[in-house]
Amino acid sequence: MARKTTRDIQKIYASGRAISMVTCYDFTFARLVEMAEIDTILIGDSLGNVIQGHDTTLPVEVDDIIYHTRAVARGNSSALIIADMPFMSYQASDEVGLMNAGRLMKEGGAQAVKVEGGERVAPMVKRMVDAGIPVVGHLGLTPQSVHAFGGFHVQAREEDAAEQLLQDALALQAAGAFMVVLEMVPADLAQRVTESLSIPTIGIGAGAKTSGQVLVIYDLLGLNTSFKPRFLKHFAELESVCVNALKAYKDEVEANSYPADEHSF
Ligand code: KIV
Ligand code: NA
Q: What is the complex's ipTM, to 2 decimals?
């Protein structure tokens, strides 16, 4: 299957079918994502949490995203590949942002980048788009601002904040963004934004009326059952599957029953 492009994503959106997105960070899972025919992969800075074990996404470096994007691209030849711009890779100046977006594409092999923020980043988004870099926006709970928010809470519950979020989404669209992620916002606001835009919205904790959905791959697979925010559904319970397999291995090693003759040379 040929790799999906931003045009293919536009066509799916125009057809009315919801767009599927998962995060992914390595070759092995990227292969599974291809077998599942998921439309698009985000190499999220959530790797700071689920790969590196940090409490926030703030420590993630551009080089980390490049490393994981390359691994994902080798394991999946069908999904549109979007690389996240990590904290402080675009906040200090538009030039720095442009150069780092270029690195994610040149060195990582990404087809698009994602940035957090609305009106504030719109001029930079326009410069990226002008340079041939497709951009995904990200509004609502933008985890790079966790310390400004004072935690991970639903955003834009009040009407003035909701109005600002809508203005942010429109600014991203006007700047040329081809898609916008809406994270942890009320479902009716996500619907209002989705209906106000002519580019697709991708929701996470944003209800069912967005143009598509995204989840962190390990979360949806149930690899860490201690993490269960309200918006998350475990589509499998792989934590117990993996632990049971590891225990069975350990038991057989200790019992000298693995490897058996059939595993030996
Ligand atoms: O980093 C990430 O995984 C994300 C998605 C949850 C949208 O930004
Ligand atoms: Na992210």
A: 0.99
